Amino acid sequence: MKKLVLAIAFIGMGSFAMAQQTTPQDRETRRAEMQQKMQQREQEHLAQMQKDLNLNPSQVAQVKALHEKRKAERKAEFEKNKDMRQAKMDEMKAKRAQMDADMKKILTPEQYDKWQVDRKAKMEQKRMAMKDKRMMKKPMNTATPEVK
Q1: Of the candidates 35, 42, 65, 97, which lies 20 to 30 Å from 8 by C-alpha distance?
Q2: Does the structure show a pLDDT above 50 at 35?
Q3: Alpha carbons 76 and 66: distance in angstroms, whole number
Q4: Largest Cα–Cα distance of the chain, in whole Å?
Q5: CA distance 98 to 87
Q6: The dihedral of CA 85, 87, 91, 97: what is its sign?
Q7: Residue 65 region, left (φ>0) first, then alpha (ψ -120 to 50), else beta?
Q8: Does the model's pTM come out above 0.70?
Q9: H/E segment holding residue 126
Q10: Reduced to 3 states, what is the DSSP secondary structure of residue 42?
């Protein structure tokens, strides 16, 4: 019975992993769509600010310039910390590999295989929970409705 359950789990994980693979073209397409959505959101946000705050064209231009400046600062900060993030990721991979090696020494081959399947399943659950959490986020425009 246990072997049957493990076999089904391996098949399920294998088919799920195959479904998650994307090509570089898909990634580029998705990235372009996301950039277009972000630009649209920025324009909508600016239009909403103009409407809510009754901004004149000069103020709209200044606000837009300020947003662009902040966007450039965030991008520069991101690039500045890129090496540090990569170093942390490499460190985490090394620690994970060490943990894996240590567990392989401690556990029997059957126990080790089961541990790996359980660990991958938990990681996938966390990944799906994070994806759901991102989908559940409220839109940026949370302005209070007008009172008449």
Answers
A1: 97
A2: yes
A3: 15
A4: 73
A5: 17
A6: positive
A7: alpha
A8: no
A9: helix 109-136
A10: helix
